[in-house]
Amino acid sequence: MSRVEEKRKSDSPVEPASLAPAISANTGGVALPDSGLIGAQLREILTLSTAFERHLGRALSVNDTDLAAMEHLISHGPLSPSELARHLTISTAATTIVIDRLVAVGHAHREAHPHDRRKIVVVPTPASVRATFEALMPLIGGVASVTNELSAEDRRTVTDFLASVVGVYRRALEPPV
């Protein structure tokens, strides 16, 4: 028996049958395909991911939009306000308010653009980046630990499965033809 199978038997916190009444009651009569325990666990991961984002926002004293802005600044580095607005898909006026809030709580500061003196860029502060990663480490470290416990074969299986799930999400986001 693989480690994944052993883990599944010892850790299965949610039985699909226990979720079926809640799911079927909230679909407006739409019949859902049965994805069993895996589907239930994926839904639980989505729910927990949203809860963790709220937790992270509270820990950093920011709202959802400000947290998304911080994520873009940390991931992409300094951005102009218009670039940040495009990433957030909000207006530049709304982005100015987001930047003002981030600056006020010490998560970012404005600097002159390195190549265009007429522009500014928004830069995450080192203390903010550090605080963000400190808050993320229990999750990042926990997932890394679980991943490292997998055999090479189980890791390939999980990687292939997750790549397929990512593909499902990407196709669902494509505009209809």
UniProtKB/TrEMBL annotation:
Protein origin, superkingdom? Bacteria
Q: What Gene Ontology molecular-function terms does this entry list?
A: DNA-binding transcription factor activity
Q: Where do the record's region annotations for Disordered lie?
A: 1-20
Q: Which residues form the HTH marR-type domain?
A: 55-155
BP-aspect Gene Ontology terms: response to stress
UniProt-listed Pfam families: MarR_2
Question: Gene3D superfamilies annotated for this entry?
Answer: Winged helix-like DNA-binding domain superfamily/Winged helix DNA-binding domain (1.10.10.10)
Positions the record marks as coiled coil are: none
Return the Basic and acidic residues bias intervals. 1-12
Recorded protein name is Winged helix-turn-helix transcriptional regulator
Record organism = Lacisediminihabitans profunda
